Amino acid sequence: MSPSELKQIIHLIESSGLDYFHFGSRQDILFPKTQKLESIQEQFPHFDIEALSKKKHQNIVCSYVAADIFPSTSWLTGTSYLYILEQFRYAPALEINICDPQQRLVPLFTGNLNFIASTHTDYWYLYLQLPEYEKEGYYPVLIHSWDIATIAQHIEEFYQEVNHISDLFNLINISVDTNNRTFSEGLSIPFYPFPYYEGMNRMGLDLYWLGLYWRDNKYSTSFLKALCDLCLAHKIGKICITPWKSFIVKGIPSKHKVSWEKFLGKNGINVRHSSLELNWHLPVNDTEALNLKRFMIRTFDQNDISTYGLTFAVSSYYSKNFTSIVIVKNPQPKLVGDFEVRPTYNVMYSQNFDPNTCIYKTYAQDVDKIELPPLLMELSQLYFDQLGESTNLVSTIEEGKSDDKTIELDAFQCSACFTIYDSLYGDSSQGISAGTPFEQLPATYLCPTCDAPKDSFKKGKGTPLPHQQAIKN
Q1: How far apart, in whole angstroms, are the C-alpha atoms of residue 473 and residue 470?
Q2: Is the residue at 206 inside a domain?
Q3: Which terminus has fewer CB within 10 Å in the chain: N or C?
Q4: Is 403 part of a structural domain of the chain?
Q5: Tens digit of each residue's pLDDT (9 = 90 or more) over 104-116
Q6: Is the CA virtual torsion 22, 25, 26, 27 positive or negative?
Q7: Segment holding 310, helix H or strand E
Q8: Where are the beta strands (DSSP E) in 239-359?
Q9: Are strands 60-62 and 407-414 parallel, antiparallel or unpaired?
Q10: What would the pLDDT profile of 275-297 be if each residue is shown by its tens digit?
Protein backbone atom coordinates (compact mmCIF):
# COMPACT_ATOMS: atom_id res chain seq x y z
CA MET A 1 0.00 0.00 0.00
CA SER A 2 1.07 3.62 -0.34
CA PRO A 3 2.17 5.57 2.77
CA SER A 4 -0.96 7.72 2.37
CA GLU A 5 -3.20 4.65 2.37
CA LEU A 6 -1.48 3.28 5.46
CA LYS A 7 -1.98 6.62 7.24
CA GLN A 8 -5.70 6.39 6.44
CA ILE A 9 -5.81 2.87 7.87
CA ILE A 10 -3.99 4.05 11.00
CA HIS A 11 -6.55 6.84 11.39
CA LEU A 12 -9.28 4.19 11.07
CA ILE A 13 -7.68 2.10 13.81
CA GLU A 14 -7.12 5.06 16.11
CA SER A 15 -10.75 6.12 15.66
CA SER A 16 -11.71 2.80 17.27
CA GLY A 17 -9.68 3.72 20.36
CA LEU A 18 -6.58 1.61 19.63
CA ASP A 19 -2.92 2.59 19.45
CA TYR A 20 -1.60 -0.60 17.81
CA PHE A 21 -2.53 -3.29 15.29
CA HIS A 22 -1.28 -6.67 14.02
CA PHE A 23 -0.20 -7.99 10.65
CA GLY A 24 -1.82 -11.26 9.51
CA SER A 25 -0.66 -14.30 7.54
CA ARG A 26 -2.31 -13.16 4.32
CA GLN A 27 -0.64 -9.75 4.18
CA ASP A 28 -3.63 -8.22 5.91
CA ILE A 29 -4.03 -5.85 8.86
CA LEU A 30 -5.82 -7.12 11.96
CA PHE A 31 -6.99 -5.21 15.00
CA PRO A 32 -8.90 -6.31 18.12
CA LYS A 33 -12.66 -6.62 18.05
CA THR A 34 -14.48 -3.31 18.41
CA GLN A 35 -18.12 -2.33 18.75
CA LYS A 36 -17.52 0.52 16.30
CA LEU A 37 -17.00 -1.68 13.26
CA GLU A 38 -20.12 -0.55 11.36
CA SER A 39 -19.49 3.14 11.98
CA ILE A 40 -15.84 2.72 10.95
CA GLN A 41 -16.91 1.06 7.69
CA GLU A 42 -19.20 4.03 6.99
CA GLN A 43 -16.26 6.39 7.50
CA PHE A 44 -13.97 4.37 5.24
CA PRO A 45 -16.20 2.78 2.56
CA HIS A 46 -13.26 2.14 0.19
CA PHE A 47 -11.61 -0.26 2.67
CA ASP A 48 -12.68 -3.88 3.02
CA ILE A 49 -13.27 -4.17 6.80
CA GLU A 50 -14.76 -7.38 8.17
CA ALA A 51 -15.09 -9.20 11.45
CA LEU A 52 -13.16 -12.48 11.24
CA SER A 53 -16.15 -14.42 12.55
CA LYS A 54 -18.28 -13.16 9.64
CA LYS A 55 -15.63 -12.87 6.97
CA LYS A 56 -16.95 -13.04 3.41
CA HIS A 57 -13.95 -11.82 1.44
CA GLN A 58 -10.27 -12.75 1.25
CA ASN A 59 -7.09 -10.74 0.90
CA ILE A 60 -4.94 -11.43 -2.16
CA VAL A 61 -1.44 -12.63 -1.27
CA CYS A 62 1.34 -11.79 -3.73
CA SER A 63 5.12 -11.77 -3.81
CA TYR A 64 5.41 -8.12 -4.85
CA VAL A 65 7.12 -7.67 -1.47
CA ALA A 66 9.99 -9.92 -2.66
CA ALA A 67 10.39 -8.32 -6.11
CA ASP A 68 13.77 -6.65 -6.77
CA ILE A 69 15.29 -7.79 -3.45
CA PHE A 70 15.16 -11.62 -3.57
CA PRO A 71 15.65 -14.15 -6.43
CA SER A 72 13.00 -13.73 -9.11
CA THR A 73 11.78 -14.99 -12.47
CA SER A 74 13.58 -12.93 -15.13
CA TRP A 75 10.51 -11.28 -16.67
CA LEU A 76 8.59 -10.64 -13.44
CA THR A 77 9.04 -7.14 -12.00
CA GLY A 78 7.31 -5.19 -9.26
CA THR A 79 5.38 -3.28 -11.92
CA SER A 80 3.95 -6.55 -13.28
CA TYR A 81 2.29 -7.31 -9.92
CA LEU A 82 0.79 -3.82 -9.69
CA TYR A 83 -0.75 -4.09 -13.17
CA ILE A 84 -2.25 -7.49 -12.29
CA LEU A 85 -3.69 -6.30 -8.97
CA GLU A 86 -5.26 -3.26 -10.62
CA GLN A 87 -7.33 -5.62 -12.79
CA PHE A 88 -9.26 -6.95 -9.78
CA ARG A 89 -12.56 -5.07 -9.79
CA TYR A 90 -14.28 -7.34 -7.29
CA ALA A 91 -13.70 -8.52 -3.71
CA PRO A 92 -12.64 -12.19 -3.88
CA ALA A 93 -14.41 -14.78 -1.72
CA LEU A 94 -11.71 -17.35 -2.53
CA GLU A 95 -8.14 -17.10 -1.27
CA ILE A 96 -5.86 -16.02 -4.12
CA ASN A 97 -2.05 -16.26 -4.24
CA ILE A 98 -0.02 -14.59 -7.02
CA CYS A 99 3.60 -15.65 -6.57
CA ASP A 100 7.03 -16.04 -8.09
CA PRO A 101 8.37 -19.60 -7.56
CA GLN A 102 11.95 -18.29 -7.36
CA GLN A 103 11.40 -16.52 -4.02
CA ARG A 104 10.83 -18.11 -0.58
CA LEU A 105 9.35 -15.25 1.44
CA VAL A 106 5.73 -15.65 0.28
CA PRO A 107 4.08 -19.12 0.23
CA LEU A 108 2.97 -20.50 -3.13
CA PHE A 109 0.18 -22.95 -2.29
CA THR A 110 -1.79 -21.55 0.67
CA GLY A 111 -4.65 -20.22 -1.45
CA ASN A 112 -7.64 -21.70 -3.22
CA LEU A 113 -6.35 -20.21 -6.50
CA ASN A 114 -2.56 -20.21 -6.71
CA PHE A 115 -1.14 -18.34 -9.71
CA ILE A 116 2.56 -19.19 -10.07
CA ALA A 117 4.83 -17.54 -12.65
CA SER A 118 6.13 -19.73 -15.47
CA THR A 119 9.32 -19.24 -17.49
CA HIS A 120 7.23 -17.91 -20.38
CA THR A 121 6.94 -14.12 -20.23
CA ASP A 122 3.60 -12.99 -18.75
CA TYR A 123 2.22 -16.52 -18.35
CA TRP A 124 1.25 -18.26 -15.12
CA TYR A 125 0.41 -21.74 -13.89
CA LEU A 126 -2.77 -22.01 -11.84
CA TYR A 127 -2.98 -24.59 -9.07
CA LEU A 128 -6.51 -24.97 -7.70
CA GLN A 129 -7.54 -26.14 -4.22
CA LEU A 130 -11.24 -25.42 -4.36
CA PRO A 131 -13.67 -25.95 -1.49
CA GLU A 132 -15.68 -29.18 -1.82
CA TYR A 133 -13.50 -30.41 -4.70
CA GLU A 134 -12.22 -33.91 -4.03
CA LYS A 135 -9.27 -33.51 -6.35
CA GLU A 136 -6.91 -30.54 -6.54
CA GLY A 137 -4.62 -29.88 -9.45
CA TYR A 138 -3.48 -27.60 -12.22
CA TYR A 139 -5.54 -25.63 -14.71
CA PRO A 140 -4.81 -27.26 -18.08
CA VAL A 141 -3.33 -24.11 -19.71
CA LEU A 142 -1.06 -21.23 -18.78
CA ILE A 143 -2.90 -17.97 -18.05
CA HIS A 144 -1.78 -14.57 -19.31
CA SER A 145 -1.06 -11.87 -16.73
CA TRP A 146 -3.88 -9.63 -17.91
CA ASP A 147 -6.40 -12.49 -17.70
CA ILE A 148 -5.68 -13.48 -14.08
CA ALA A 149 -8.41 -11.31 -12.54
CA THR A 150 -10.95 -12.34 -15.20
CA ILE A 151 -10.23 -16.05 -14.77
CA ALA A 152 -10.35 -15.77 -10.97
CA GLN A 153 -13.74 -14.03 -11.06
CA HIS A 154 -15.22 -16.59 -13.44
CA ILE A 155 -13.93 -19.45 -11.31
CA GLU A 156 -15.77 -17.93 -8.34
CA GLU A 157 -18.95 -17.79 -10.42
CA PHE A 158 -18.75 -21.30 -11.88
CA TYR A 159 -16.82 -23.64 -9.58
CA GLN A 160 -19.91 -24.79 -7.65
CA GLU A 161 -21.62 -25.86 -10.88
CA VAL A 162 -19.08 -28.65 -11.57
CA ASN A 163 -16.81 -30.84 -9.46
CA HIS A 164 -13.83 -31.35 -11.72
CA ILE A 165 -11.14 -28.92 -12.91
CA SER A 166 -11.43 -29.99 -16.57
CA ASP A 167 -15.18 -29.30 -16.51
CA LEU A 168 -14.52 -25.92 -14.92
CA PHE A 169 -11.98 -25.12 -17.64
CA ASN A 170 -14.44 -26.02 -20.41
CA LEU A 171 -17.15 -23.86 -18.86
CA ILE A 172 -14.86 -20.85 -18.54
CA ASN A 173 -13.40 -21.38 -22.02
CA ILE A 174 -16.89 -21.11 -23.49
CA SER A 175 -17.80 -18.04 -21.45
CA VAL A 176 -14.76 -15.79 -21.81
CA ASP A 177 -12.17 -15.03 -24.47
CA THR A 178 -8.67 -15.28 -22.98
CA ASN A 179 -5.09 -15.40 -24.23
CA ASN A 180 -4.13 -18.85 -22.90
CA ARG A 181 -1.04 -20.86 -23.76
CA THR A 182 -0.63 -24.64 -23.80
CA PHE A 183 2.30 -26.32 -22.09
CA SER A 184 3.83 -29.75 -21.67
CA GLU A 185 6.40 -29.30 -18.90
CA GLY A 186 5.54 -29.26 -15.22
CA LEU A 187 6.21 -26.37 -12.89
CA SER A 188 9.76 -26.52 -11.54
CA ILE A 189 10.31 -24.91 -8.14
CA PRO A 190 13.97 -24.48 -7.16
CA PHE A 191 14.98 -24.81 -3.53
CA TYR A 192 16.35 -21.72 -1.77
CA PRO A 193 17.00 -21.35 1.95
CA PHE A 194 14.57 -19.08 3.78
CA PRO A 195 15.85 -15.48 3.46
CA TYR A 196 16.81 -12.99 6.15
CA TYR A 197 14.19 -10.26 5.72
CA GLU A 198 15.09 -7.64 8.34
CA GLY A 199 17.37 -4.61 8.66
CA MET A 200 18.82 -2.12 6.16
CA ASN A 201 20.04 -3.89 3.02
CA ARG A 202 21.46 -2.74 -0.30
CA MET A 203 19.09 -2.82 -3.29
CA GLY A 204 20.87 -2.18 -6.57
CA LEU A 205 23.55 0.50 -6.83
CA ASP A 206 21.95 3.50 -5.19
CA LEU A 207 19.02 2.20 -3.14
CA TYR A 208 18.34 0.31 0.08
CA TRP A 209 15.45 -1.70 1.48
CA LEU A 210 14.45 -1.87 5.13
CA GLY A 211 12.72 -4.78 6.87
CA LEU A 212 11.13 -4.22 10.29
CA TYR A 213 9.88 -6.88 12.69
CA TRP A 214 8.21 -6.70 16.12
CA ARG A 215 8.50 -9.74 18.40
CA ASP A 216 4.95 -9.41 19.75
CA ASN A 217 3.38 -8.35 16.41
CA LYS A 218 1.91 -5.20 18.02
CA TYR A 219 2.75 -2.31 15.71
CA SER A 220 2.53 1.19 17.21
CA THR A 221 0.30 3.53 15.22
CA SER A 222 2.30 6.61 16.30
CA PHE A 223 5.59 5.13 15.03
CA LEU A 224 4.08 4.00 11.74
CA LYS A 225 2.49 7.41 11.13
CA ALA A 226 5.93 8.98 11.50
CA LEU A 227 7.38 6.32 9.19
CA CYS A 228 4.72 7.11 6.57
CA ASP A 229 5.65 10.80 6.75
CA LEU A 230 9.32 9.90 6.21
CA CYS A 231 8.37 7.75 3.19
CA LEU A 232 6.38 10.62 1.70
CA ALA A 233 9.24 13.07 2.31
CA HIS A 234 11.64 10.77 0.43
CA LYS A 235 9.14 9.93 -2.36
CA ILE A 236 8.86 6.23 -1.45
CA GLY A 237 5.66 4.93 -3.00
CA LYS A 238 4.95 1.56 -1.32
CA ILE A 239 5.07 -0.15 2.06
CA CYS A 240 4.87 -3.96 1.77
CA ILE A 241 3.50 -6.40 4.35
CA THR A 242 5.05 -9.88 4.49
CA PRO A 243 3.22 -13.09 5.51
CA TRP A 244 5.70 -13.26 8.42
CA LYS A 245 4.00 -10.42 10.28
CA SER A 246 6.61 -7.86 9.37
CA PHE A 247 6.89 -5.20 6.70
CA ILE A 248 9.42 -3.99 4.13
CA VAL A 249 10.12 -0.52 2.72
CA LYS A 250 11.89 -0.65 -0.66
CA GLY A 251 13.65 2.08 -2.62
CA ILE A 252 15.29 4.16 0.14
CA PRO A 253 17.82 6.46 -1.63
CA SER A 254 21.38 5.96 -0.38
CA LYS A 255 21.67 9.70 0.32
CA HIS A 256 18.83 9.33 2.89
CA LYS A 257 20.16 6.13 4.53
CA VAL A 258 21.58 8.03 7.51
CA SER A 259 18.23 9.84 8.02
CA TRP A 260 16.48 6.46 8.26
CA GLU A 261 19.04 5.06 10.68
CA LYS A 262 18.67 8.18 12.82
CA PHE A 263 14.88 7.82 12.71
CA LEU A 264 15.08 4.19 13.88
CA GLY A 265 17.57 5.03 16.63
CA LYS A 266 15.56 7.93 17.99
CA ASN A 267 12.50 5.69 18.19
CA GLY A 268 14.42 2.86 19.86
CA ILE A 269 13.70 0.43 17.02
CA ASN A 270 15.90 -2.65 17.08
CA VAL A 271 16.89 -4.34 13.81
CA ARG A 272 19.04 -7.34 13.01
CA HIS A 273 17.26 -9.81 15.25
CA SER A 274 18.74 -13.28 15.28
CA SER A 275 17.67 -15.49 12.38
CA LEU A 276 16.50 -17.90 15.11
CA GLU A 277 13.61 -15.46 15.71
CA LEU A 278 12.72 -14.45 12.16
CA ASN A 279 11.98 -17.94 10.84
CA TRP A 280 8.97 -18.55 13.12
CA HIS A 281 5.31 -18.21 12.15
CA LEU A 282 2.83 -17.78 15.02
CA PRO A 283 -0.92 -17.27 15.41
CA VAL A 284 -1.88 -13.63 15.88
CA ASN A 285 -2.13 -12.40 19.49
CA ASP A 286 -1.40 -15.83 21.00
CA THR A 287 0.66 -15.32 24.16
CA GLU A 288 1.11 -19.04 24.78
CA ALA A 289 2.53 -19.60 21.29
CA LEU A 290 4.84 -16.59 21.70
CA ASN A 291 6.15 -17.93 25.02
CA LEU A 292 6.72 -21.36 23.49
CA LYS A 293 8.70 -19.77 20.66
CA ARG A 294 10.83 -17.83 23.17
CA PHE A 295 11.51 -21.04 25.09
CA MET A 296 12.65 -22.78 21.91
CA ILE A 297 14.86 -19.87 20.81
CA ARG A 298 16.62 -19.69 24.18
CA THR A 299 17.38 -23.40 24.01
CA PHE A 300 18.66 -23.16 20.42
CA ASP A 301 20.85 -20.20 21.35
CA GLN A 302 22.30 -21.90 24.43
CA ASN A 303 23.21 -24.95 22.34
CA ASP A 304 24.59 -22.95 19.37
CA ILE A 305 22.08 -24.57 17.00
CA SER A 306 21.87 -23.36 13.42
CA THR A 307 18.44 -23.27 11.80
CA TYR A 308 19.49 -21.41 8.65
CA GLY A 309 17.08 -22.19 5.82
CA LEU A 310 14.48 -23.81 8.09
CA THR A 311 11.16 -22.32 9.15
CA PHE A 312 8.99 -23.18 12.16
CA ALA A 313 5.34 -22.69 13.12
CA VAL A 314 3.36 -23.01 16.33
CA SER A 315 -0.27 -23.88 15.76
CA SER A 316 -3.14 -24.64 18.12
CA TYR A 317 -5.85 -24.75 15.46
CA TYR A 318 -6.34 -25.72 11.82
CA SER A 319 -4.27 -23.59 9.47
CA LYS A 320 -2.61 -23.97 6.11
CA ASN A 321 0.97 -24.38 7.19
CA PHE A 322 3.80 -22.99 5.10
CA THR A 323 6.82 -23.79 7.23
CA SER A 324 9.35 -26.63 7.28
CA ILE A 325 8.51 -27.77 10.82
CA VAL A 326 5.21 -27.38 12.69
CA ILE A 327 4.47 -27.73 16.41
CA VAL A 328 0.78 -28.47 16.96
CA LYS A 329 -0.76 -28.26 20.41
CA ASN A 330 -3.12 -31.13 21.16
CA PRO A 331 -6.62 -30.41 22.48
CA GLN A 332 -6.88 -30.67 26.25
CA PRO A 333 -8.68 -33.86 27.34
CA LYS A 334 -12.02 -33.40 29.05
CA LEU A 335 -11.61 -34.62 32.62
CA VAL A 336 -13.97 -34.71 35.56
CA GLY A 337 -12.79 -32.94 38.70
CA ASP A 338 -9.99 -30.49 39.33
CA PHE A 339 -7.23 -32.40 37.58
CA GLU A 340 -4.62 -30.27 35.88
CA VAL A 341 -3.19 -31.75 32.69
CA ARG A 342 -0.05 -30.43 31.08
CA PRO A 343 -0.38 -29.70 27.35
CA THR A 344 1.16 -32.08 24.83
CA TYR A 345 2.32 -31.43 21.30
CA ASN A 346 2.77 -33.13 17.96
CA VAL A 347 5.78 -32.29 15.77
CA MET A 348 5.48 -32.48 11.98
CA TYR A 349 7.87 -31.69 9.14
CA SER A 350 7.33 -31.09 5.44
CA GLN A 351 8.62 -33.51 2.86
CA ASN A 352 12.28 -32.67 2.05
CA PHE A 353 11.78 -29.82 4.56
CA ASP A 354 10.22 -27.87 1.70
CA PRO A 355 6.85 -26.28 2.64
CA ASN A 356 5.94 -26.07 -1.05
CA THR A 357 5.39 -29.84 -1.12
CA CYS A 358 2.32 -29.29 1.13
CA ILE A 359 2.97 -32.79 2.50
CA TYR A 360 3.61 -33.10 6.24
CA LYS A 361 4.74 -36.16 8.15
CA THR A 362 4.47 -36.67 11.88
CA TYR A 363 7.87 -36.87 13.61
CA ALA A 364 6.66 -37.16 17.22
CA GLN A 365 3.28 -37.30 18.95
CA ASP A 366 2.00 -36.38 22.40
CA VAL A 367 5.29 -34.99 23.69
CA ASP A 368 5.78 -32.64 26.62
CA LYS A 369 7.05 -29.08 26.16
CA ILE A 370 10.44 -29.98 27.64
CA GLU A 371 10.89 -32.65 24.94
CA LEU A 372 10.40 -30.22 22.05
CA PRO A 373 13.89 -28.63 21.86
CA PRO A 374 15.82 -31.90 21.37
CA LEU A 375 13.25 -33.08 18.80
CA LEU A 376 13.59 -29.87 16.79
CA MET A 377 17.39 -30.10 17.05
CA GLU A 378 17.19 -33.64 15.65
CA LEU A 379 15.08 -32.39 12.76
CA SER A 380 17.49 -29.50 12.14
CA GLN A 381 20.35 -32.00 11.88
CA LEU A 382 18.27 -34.21 9.58
CA TYR A 383 17.64 -31.16 7.37
CA PHE A 384 21.35 -30.39 7.02
CA ASP A 385 22.14 -34.06 6.39
CA GLN A 386 19.87 -34.12 3.34
CA LEU A 387 20.46 -30.51 2.19
CA GLY A 388 21.46 -30.40 -1.46
CA GLU A 389 20.30 -33.91 -2.27
CA SER A 390 16.94 -32.68 -3.61
CA THR A 391 17.13 -29.17 -5.02
CA ASN A 392 14.09 -29.02 -7.28
CA LEU A 393 10.40 -29.64 -6.67
CA VAL A 394 8.65 -30.52 -9.92
CA SER A 395 4.87 -30.48 -9.94
CA THR A 396 3.30 -32.97 -12.32
CA ILE A 397 0.77 -31.22 -14.56
CA GLU A 398 -0.86 -33.79 -16.78
CA GLU A 399 -3.79 -35.21 -14.90
CA GLY A 400 -3.59 -38.91 -14.13
CA LYS A 401 0.12 -39.09 -14.98
CA SER A 402 3.18 -39.05 -12.79
CA ASP A 403 6.92 -39.00 -13.30
CA ASP A 404 9.13 -42.01 -12.66
CA LYS A 405 9.83 -40.98 -9.07
CA THR A 406 6.18 -40.85 -8.09
CA ILE A 407 4.83 -44.07 -6.57
CA GLU A 408 1.81 -45.21 -4.70
CA LEU A 409 2.45 -44.85 -0.96
CA ASP A 410 0.69 -46.81 1.73
CA ALA A 411 -0.28 -43.50 3.31
CA PHE A 412 -3.36 -41.31 3.45
CA GLN A 413 -3.32 -37.51 3.74
CA CYS A 414 -5.86 -35.30 5.48
CA SER A 415 -7.33 -32.95 2.86
CA ALA A 416 -7.88 -30.25 5.51
CA CYS A 417 -4.43 -29.87 7.09
CA PHE A 418 -2.21 -32.25 5.01
CA THR A 419 -1.32 -34.53 7.96
CA ILE A 420 -0.33 -38.01 6.76
CA TYR A 421 -1.45 -41.32 8.27
CA ASP A 422 1.31 -43.82 7.53
CA SER A 423 0.45 -47.45 8.26
CA LEU A 424 4.13 -48.07 9.01
CA TYR A 425 3.80 -46.00 12.19
CA GLY A 426 0.10 -46.13 13.04
CA ASP A 427 -1.18 -43.44 15.42
CA SER A 428 -0.25 -43.84 19.07
CA SER A 429 -2.37 -40.81 20.06
CA GLN A 430 -5.50 -42.85 19.29
CA GLY A 431 -4.25 -46.31 20.22
CA ILE A 432 -3.60 -47.37 16.61
CA SER A 433 -0.66 -49.77 16.56
CA ALA A 434 2.09 -49.68 13.94
CA GLY A 435 1.30 -51.71 10.83
CA THR A 436 -2.46 -51.02 10.90
CA PRO A 437 -3.75 -50.37 7.35
CA PHE A 438 -5.84 -47.26 6.93
CA GLU A 439 -8.83 -49.33 5.79
CA GLN A 440 -8.88 -51.06 9.20
CA LEU A 441 -9.09 -47.83 11.19
CA PRO A 442 -12.40 -47.39 13.02
CA ALA A 443 -15.01 -45.11 11.44
CA THR A 444 -14.61 -42.81 14.44
CA TYR A 445 -10.94 -42.14 13.64
CA LEU A 446 -10.06 -38.42 13.57
CA CYS A 447 -7.08 -36.52 12.19
CA PRO A 448 -4.66 -36.11 15.13
CA THR A 449 -3.91 -32.54 14.04
CA CYS A 450 -7.22 -30.91 13.09
CA ASP A 451 -9.86 -33.52 14.16
CA ALA A 452 -11.14 -33.95 10.60
CA PRO A 453 -13.09 -37.24 10.12
CA LYS A 454 -11.63 -40.37 8.55
CA ASP A 455 -13.36 -39.77 5.21
CA SER A 456 -11.38 -36.53 4.75
CA PHE A 457 -8.20 -38.60 4.21
CA LYS A 458 -7.20 -39.34 0.61
CA LYS A 459 -4.68 -41.93 -0.57
CA GLY A 460 -1.52 -40.10 -1.56
CA LYS A 461 1.00 -40.26 -4.31
CA GLY A 462 4.39 -38.70 -3.85
CA THR A 463 8.14 -39.00 -3.77
CA PRO A 464 8.87 -41.49 -0.99
CA LEU A 465 10.93 -40.59 2.02
CA PRO A 466 14.04 -42.75 2.65
CA HIS A 467 12.32 -45.28 4.94
CA GLN A 468 9.46 -45.72 2.45
CA GLN A 469 11.84 -46.17 -0.50
CA ALA A 470 13.66 -48.91 1.39
CA ILE A 471 10.39 -50.72 1.98
CA LYS A 472 9.37 -50.45 -1.69
CA ASN A 473 12.77 -51.78 -2.73
Answers
A1: 5
A2: no
A3: C
A4: yes
A5: 999 999 999 999 9
A6: positive
A7: none
A8: 239-241, 246-253, 280-281, 312-315, 325-329, 345-350
A9: unpaired
A10: 899 999 998 888 999 999 999 99
